[in-house]
Amino acid sequence: MKCENELCVYCNQGHCILDSISINALGMCDDAIQITINHHIFMKEKEAQLQELMKLQK
Prior knowledge:
Blueprint: E1 11-12, E2 15-16, H1 39-57
Antiparallel strand pairs: 1-2
């Protein structure tokens, strides 16, 4: 099935690798397991993307 949660360990190339999932009352997957990203790497990438966005606004 299609999946847009790139931070879920079960998401592979836009598709869920599980055979079945549970959807909660909000329409969100209850089986999703989010990957953990090192805070230093996360902040470095966030800053880099912000700088790129700022360049586009000029």
